[in-house]
Amino acid sequence: MIWSLQILRFVAALMVVYSHSVKIAIEVTRSNGLLPLSVQMVGRAGVDIFFVISGVIISRVSIGLSWQEFAWRRLRRVVPIYFVACIPTVVIAAKDGFGWRDVLATFLLWPATDVMTAPLLTVAWTLCFETLFYAAATLVLWNRNALYVLLGLFIGAMLLRPMGPVFQFLGNPIILEFLLGVAIARLPEWRSARWAIVVGAGMIVLAGPIGFATSGDPIDYLVGVGVGPRLLIYGIPAALIVYGTMQIKAGPSFWTAQGDASYSLYLTHILILLTLLQFWLAFPIAPDLIIILSTLACVLFGWAVHTRVEKPLLNALRGQREKTLRPA
User: What GO molecular function annotation could you give as one example from this UniProt entry (predicted)?
Assistant: First the structure.
């Protein structure tokens, strides 16, 4: 366990929640508060930090595991609480109905058919790429030669992206952020590289004011609209931040516990923000207070879901099943 990365996971989730809270404040008050919007929206880069961290973690935790054991651990970690988080969204969407594309995108995290379709729980667009990465890692653990096949398929899909959603998804340049994480995991320790955190953070923060910050919606991200510039503006700085953070010695603490809860926070925060939106519309307050209170409410609710739902689910799925997958 790289404890410092656990803390960074919480920071990354908090960045995403904060940027979405700003949008709620704007919808209620038509104002984003005191800070420039161009600075506030850099919270989007939390996703890029997540992707790089995933590359590091998967590269490290897969060592010594069979492909079955790895696949089960990823499935157990990602899917159960995701399905729980989907329940309110699916119930709401069912009133108007949804089609087979929505089912594939939401329950199998496969968004690419004849039309690119985001999951009903929109923040799960990131899980579509996470799942793709886990599947690739599983294949490589099964057969090391699969790595070359997968790299060839990725390059081919990138070249064929104009041909439609499947190639747009499989050849999405954002996948390179996972590969950055894999590369970072193999770099030697360099304690002095903690400066990379400041450099990376500075690059992300300055991207907005100088007009380089990217924007889009889940469909844009899945299709890959503007992802090339995003790699330069957010991806490389995210890699610097992750590598610099890895040089910090840390142990279990309140902040690493928040990192444990970051997945629940990420999955549930949209539901809380949409609920709070109705409250703030009825009882409007200053935009900065909306941002602060909304972000805090999301963190508290995410922690409650983590401790009351996610951890019990994980504990229930541990044990005998994992033992049966471990090779003798």
Answer: acyltransferase activity, transferring groups other than amino-acyl groups
Cβ atoms of 8 and 241 within 8 Å: the answer is yes
| Residues 146, 166: Cα–Cα separation, whole Å | 20
User: Measured between alpha carbons, how far is 86 from 267 in angstroms, rounded to an integer?
Assistant: 8
Domain annotation covers residue 162? yes
Q: What pLDDT does residue 38 have?
A: 85
Confidence (pTM): 0.93
Closest CA to 107 of 138, 86, 81: 86
Cα dihedral sign, 204-206-212-213: positive
As for how many domains the chain has, the answer is: 1
Task: Measure CA of the first residue to CA of the last residue in the chain; give whole Å.
Answer: 24
Q: Is residue 325 part of a domain?
A: no
Q: For the range 278-285, what are the long-range contacts, defined as Cβ-Cβ under 8 Å and sequence gap of 24 or more?
A: 280/24, 280/25, 280/28, 281/28, 284/28, 284/29
Structural domain boundaries, residue 301:
3-318
Q: Note whether residue 324 is domain-resident.
A: no
Helix axes 67-94, 262-282, angle to 10 degrees: 10
Please write the tens of the pLDDT for every residue from 264-286: 999 999 999 999 999 999 999 99
* Residue 158 vs residues 214, 237, 293, 297: alpha-carbon distances, Å: 20, 23, 42, 40
Would you say residue 144 lies in a domain? yes
